[in-house]
Task: structure prediction
Amino acid sequence: MHITLKETAAKMLEAENLVITTHVNPDGDALGSSLALYHMLVRLGKNVEVLVDDDIPESFGFLPDIEAIQKPEKESYPADYLIMLDVSKDRIGQVLNKCQAPIINIDHHRTNDGEADFLYLDAEKAATAEIIYQLAQELTVTPDSAVALCIYTGLSTDTGNFRFSNTSAFTLRAAADMVEAGAQPHVVSEALEKRSFKEVLDRAKAMETIEMAMEGRVAGIFIDNVLYETLDTTEGFIDGVRIIDGVDVAVLMKEVEPGKCRVSMRSKGVDVSVIATEFGGGGHVRAAGCTIEEPLVEAKTKLLEVISRHI
Ligand code: 5GP
Ligand code: MN
Result:
């Protein structure tokens, strides 16, 4: 059932025990939004746990209280509500079984499945962090520097540092407010851009796999499992293909286990969320992803076939 942001805030204010969760493979918006809300609810005197069923990338170590995030290792997590941010039920892993509380879902993905008990969905927003920024007002909490840094991180990462087409005047005003409240933009960009020498060399190796298709309108990096096992990260690789002149759809496909490929897509025009949805994934018009349970070559053929129907 859809609820307003005011109703969302009211439910949180009346609760005592809350669990916050977000998607596996967490990014800056997922972690920034979760920790910003965590800080605000703790300040309001709530008992709050943050559970993420995945490893937290070390690069997010600069986020205040990142160590508060736990894996769902206990048997169960009783709570008044499970607050699910930046995701639908399908990508929170074990948290779904272990926290049986009614779900309050806050999201900006147009592909949200709408299955939460209470849903606040605003697909016009560039980041869930934009909604958390609005929610702060409804909770009557003034963001301190910790909340500001977390929200700023979400705004920045989901907009490609305020460069993608989802960047709006609202995004920039929210970012300005967060900087005024104490977020330092360079702290975020330096932490997230930093790469080890090995990672720079890895990126060069991955770039050698670039293939063009559909007369240069599609470009992809295709990493088989052998190469994948030698890489420390693939973060940001897709930006290297997205910028090729004439490319509409950029793809990063990586065989994370033999016979299982993770796919990221970015586009300048084509709705890649539709393509991802055909494979059981989702996302936004210009940034989406999915998993294809096939070896790399087969997965590539299937993906390119679907892209060719949409381009
Ligand atoms: P990324 O390529 O950065 O992993 O994801 C791009 C966007 O697509 C993000 O908004 C992300 O949440 C969404 N996305 C990526 N993979 C999946 C997936 O497997 N399922 C769904 N529903 N969304 C995904
Ligand atoms: Mn997001």
The radius of gyration is 19 Å. The pocket of manganese (II) ion (ligand 2) is lined by residues 29, 86, 108, 127-128, 158 (CB under 6 Å).
